[in-house]
Each structure stands twice: as C-alpha cells, then as structure tokens.
Amino acid sequence: ACVGGHADRHYTMPQAAPHPRHWFLGMVCAICGTLIAAGQAFNTDHTMPLSRGGRRGRANKELAHILCNAVKGNRYPFSLRTTADREAARSHVTPRTYRALERIWAGEAG
After folding, report:
1. What is the rounded distance in angstroms from the CA atom of residue 53 to the CA atom of residue 76?
2. 85: number of CA atoms within 13 Å, CB side?
3. What is the per-residue pLDDT across 5-31, written as a single tens digit (0 to 9) for each?
4. What is the 3-state secondary structure (H, E, C) of 20-52?
5. What angle do CA 80, 83, 84 make, to 5 degrees?
6. Which of 29, 71, 86, 96 has the smallest C-beta neighbourhood within 10 Å, fewest atoms?
7. Which of 91, 46, 42, 102 is nearest to 73 (CA)?
8. What is the dihedral of CA 75, 110, 9, 83, to 10 degrees?
9. What is the pLDDT of residues 34-43, one digit of tens each?
C-alpha cells in the first residue's frame, strides 16, 4: 500500500518482517511522537489542515496514528507529545477513545 493519497485512507503496519516497500517502518507519529508499531493503524495527516488553507502536496503530509489524527481534527497547531498535551486531549474524546490512545502511546497494536 502506498502511504500517499487521501487522508481518509488508512494503513496498518505489517506484522511480518519489513519488506523494502515498507519504508514507513520505524517512523513516528507526527502528532504524538511515538513509534508507529507493527499492527497499528496509521494514515497521512495534513500538517496544516486543508480547511485552514493547507495544501495537498507531500510537503504538508506526515504519518500519524489514526486516532491521533482524529483527535487533532482541523486544529493547528496541535500536538500530543507532552503529558500536558495528552491530558488536555481528554476533553476532546470519550474515555474509551482516550484508553485506546494510551494503548497506542504504549506501543501496543491497535
């Protein structure tokens, strides 16, 4: 699967050994800063949201966990890299979603 394309598409890290096409292995989520681990779903995030004037080109795209990207929405700037950022995100999501985010940040497959 190619990681370019539409933000609504998502991909899952393969569980098997890396294949040369899997260049994204070892990448980190642009939003939370943690490794995108095998089995975790991810997609491309528009760093500057399209709704806020961001462009569709590669320069405006980074890999992100699906849930991190969903929490970000069209907020800019936005980060889940610090404990304070993550605590503030509680008000944007349900308790169930927040527990799922905590599992992602712990490196568990989603």
Report:
1. 11
2. 15
3. 444 566 665 555 555 555 566 789 999
4. CCCCCCCCECCCCCCECCCCCEEEEEECCCHHH
5. 85
6. 96
7. 46
8. 20
9. 998 878 888 9
